[in-house]
TrEMBL record:
It catalyses: Hydrolysis of terminal non-reducing alpha-L-arabinofuranoside residues in alpha-L-arabinosides. Residues 492-680 form the Alpha-L-arabinofuranosidase C-terminal domain. Residues 1-30 form the signal peptide. This is non-reducing end alpha-L-arabinofuranosidase. It comes from Hymenobacter telluris. GO terms for biological process: L-arabinose metabolic process. Gene3D superfamilies: Galactose-binding domain-like, Glycosidases, Golgi alpha-mannosidase II. GO terms for molecular function: alpha-L-arabinofuranosidase activity. Its EC number is 3.2.1.55. It is an enzyme of class 3 (hydrolase). Belongs to the glycosyl hydrolase 51 family.
């Protein structure tokens, strides 16, 4: 995802959407109109639909990881952020403490080398700190939370640590939701755990830690983790958010981004090797989105990497998606510093904008990629395969795809991509590489990149587009004239913007979602060229977002899918196996008269699946001619997403305001009549074989 984008000049095409749940007046209009015949050439099947056709793009933006999918409740648990006490606050301004400091004297480890040291001259129930969590801590009544901490007792008579989970009230008062007490302290670092059962529900609770007694106490790696995680894993993920992903039946999961792959500088780039191993030893990093937008200035936004590459691979496996990691190609974000890793040495040829004194070369980034393939696929006898096995997954993750760079452009990218891809293919010829065409779907950089990547016989080219809804309807034929023998297309990031690209006023309106549904008919009709597609971004916290619109929204307790989510889900769960050519009434182009269509055969289920978008305020009767279809069933199923209000949105209060509805319809032959509702997206599943 980019912070600034430019776009094609739209071509002149219109748009459409589909179904029946319409008021009497619209029904009358539909009955008076002659149905147009849509021919689906069941007997002339086209390209197979890739299993990866519809997938997910994950980026840690909008508190998607910490504070979202990764359910650790304590912010800055190890005091390793740049601002060491981010998320922490002394009770009553730490008045009951004689001193407090962030120390690195004899830390737990070399990588976790800062901790909080508290000293109180006299015992006090206020001698301690609170942690605010991620815009509060979501706590559910009767749910259990595992508290853990590393403690070391210093001089004095501190006998324990009091742990309180509370809902803040006025002043320092608060409703207690659960308590625990840690005892048995020693003068050496030791890990302590306790389970707290919440006595109430609160969306914005906090954690309070106070010393029992006077003296000095060292505190580090403070964690409060819900027991209710996906598959009940100890370092698991938030189950409602994972379930929303799994329900989509995605073909792939692209991670970890996005611009955070690049970083604002090379020093701040995402380094996958820093995100595996012991969770307590993973060093946090400032999030690239923390201060990018004035409208959502978020200086407390850090990546803890509790959700790291091992967990991403595990998540991909859990939801049945192919993992698609994106790696830095030796370039920092070109919208920020645009630092470059030299292709040879910092003083050698093609050093470009390498940072002064930079000791990184492109070889470092290439080696990271080679090591990642070994981590994912290597035997347990290999160095990186052994690390995977030590984390609890001796079987390989069967990685098939790697993205080389995110959204980069210009000759600086191409001259780094080429040796990067060459080295990967030399050692792992079966790995498919996703390359970048930049952040814009047209323009000089896009054209030159597409041409050169074609010459290099790239496997996939990643194209991105964020634009107004009409752009998506007007560009439904974008891939109709792409070369059939060139690189395959990954529509890696796209989303209709209701106001303007990057605007804080963008909403996940039905107008945006139905326009994306129309555009996706063009992706499906060109399944021989387009093999992967994903909406972006995926997640957003309602109290901590930086970019909108987003596919799934959540707070600390609840979540919901947007109309855009249901469009994606309807495509992904009805992807089929083989594309079928479609001819609209009167040989119209897809999108003429606000009607869009695509079709596939689902050979496994024995269904013909037709997707129809009626972008019109009127109901639309259609007649489907399923040319060459055999063994027709008697009943079909319609899945309909429709609203007369193009500005309709879902919310935490009305999560299903706009959601698909199912109904059955009669099938008597290979000619099927159906009436599409105004402003609707309809999926018709018709039993029949080709």
């Amino acid at each position: 995802m980019a912070s600034k984008l430019c776009f094609f000049n739209p071509q002149s095409i219109v748009s459409g959407a589909a179904l029946l749940s319409v008021v009497a007046g619209n029904v009358a209009l539909a009955q008076n109109a002659a149905p147009g015949t849509i021919t689906v050439q069941v007997n002339k099947p086209g390209a197979p639909i890739a299993k990866t056709m519809y997938g997910l793009f994950f980026e840690d933006i909008n508190f998607a990881a910490d504070g979202g999918l990764y359910p650790e409740l304590v912010k800055n648990k190890s005091f390793e952020t740049d601002e060491k006490l981010v998320g922490w606050k002394g009770i009553n301004g730490a008045a009951a403490l004689s001193t407090y400091t962030i120390s690195s004297q004899q830390p737990i480890s070399a990588t976790n080398n800062h901790f909080l040291r508290l000293t109180a001259t006299t015992a006090s129930p206020d001698a301690g700190f609170t942690n605010e969590g991620f815009r509060g801590m979501g706590v559910k009544q009767d749910a259990e939370y595992t508290f853990s901490v590393y403690l070391r007792r210093g001089p004095g008579s501190v006998s324990g640590l009091n742990v309180t989970l509370e809902e803040p009230g006025r002043g320092n008062a608060g409703r207690t939701l659960g308590q625990a007490k840690i005892t048995g302290l020693t003068n050496e670092w030791k890990k302590y755990t306790a389970v707290i059962k919440a006595s109430g529900t609160a969306p914005r609770a906090r954690l309070k830690l106070t010393m029992d007694g006077a003296g000095t106490l060292d505190i580090d790696v403070v964690s409060l983790f819900p027991k209710d995680t996906w598959q009940n894993r100890e370092n698991g993920l938030r189950p409602d958010l994972v379930q929303l992903l799994k329900d989509m039946k995605p073909g792939f999961l692209r991670f970890p981004g996005g611009c955070i792959v690049e970083g604002r500088t090379l020093e701040e780039r995402y380094q996958w090797k820093e995100t595996i191993g012991d969770v307590a030893s993973r060093k946090p990093l400032i999030n690239r989105w923390n201060t990018e937008f004035k409208h959502k200035f978020t200086p407390d936004y850090y990546q803890s990497f509790g959700l790291g590459f091992f967990e991403y691979f595990q998540l991909s496996e859990d939801i049945g998606a192919e993992p698609l990691p994106i790696l830095n190609v030796g370039m920092a974000c070109q919208f920020n510093s645009a630092e470059l890793a030299p292709i040879t040495t910092a003083s050698g040829p093609n050093a470009g904008n390498a940072a002064p004194g930079a000791d990184l070369s492109l070889d470092t980034f290439i080696q990271d990629a080679l090591d990642l393939v070994e981590f994912a696929n290597g035997p347990t006898s290999s160095p990186w395969g052994a690390k995977r096995a030590a984390m609890g997954h001796p079987a390989p993750f069967n990685l098939k795809y790697i993205g080389v760079g995110n959204e980069q452009w210009g000759p600086q990218y191409l001259e780094r991509y080429e040796p990067f891809a060459k080295a990967l293919k030399a050692k792992y010829p079966d790995i498919l590489i996703v390359s970048s065409a930049g952040p814009s779907p047209d323009g000089d950089n896009f054209v030159k990149a597409s041409k050169r990547l074609g010459e290099l016989k790239a496997d996939f080219v990643d194209e991105h587009y964020y634009a107004k809804p009409d752009w998506f309807r007007n560009n439904v034929g974008r891939y109709d004239n792409y070369a059939r023998t060139g690189p395959k297309i990954f529509a890696g990031e796209y989303a209709a913007q209701s106001v303007n690209t990057g605007s804080s006023e963008n909403k996940n309106t039905w107008d945006c979602a139905i326009s994306e549904a129309a555009f996706m008919t063009g992706l499906e009709r060109n399944a021989d060229v387009v093999r992967m597609a994903s909406y972006a971004p995926l997640f957003a916290h309602v109290d901590a977002w930086q970019w909108t619109p987003d596919l799934i929204w959540f707070d600390n307790l609840k979540s919901y899918g947007t109309p855009n989510y249901y469009v994606q889900k309807m495509y992904a769960t009805n992807a089929g196996t083989t594309m079928l050519p479609v001819q609209l009434p009167n040989n119209a182009k897809n999108g003429d008269a606000n009607l869009f269509a695509s079709a596939v055969a689902d050979d496994k289920a024995g269904d013909i699946i037709v997707k129809l978008v009626n972008y019109s305020n009127d109901a639309r009767p259609v007649k489907l001619n399923l040319a060459g279809a055999k063994k027709m069933g008697k009943t079909g199923k319609a899945i309909v997403l429709a609203s007369n209000d193009l500005q309709a949105v879902n919310s935490l209060q009305e999560p299903m305001k706009l959601a698909p509805k199912e109904e059955q319809f009669k099938v008597s032959s290979a000619t099927v009549s159906y009436t599409l509702a105004p402003n609707s997206f309809t999926v018709l599943r018709i039993p029949g074989k080709r």
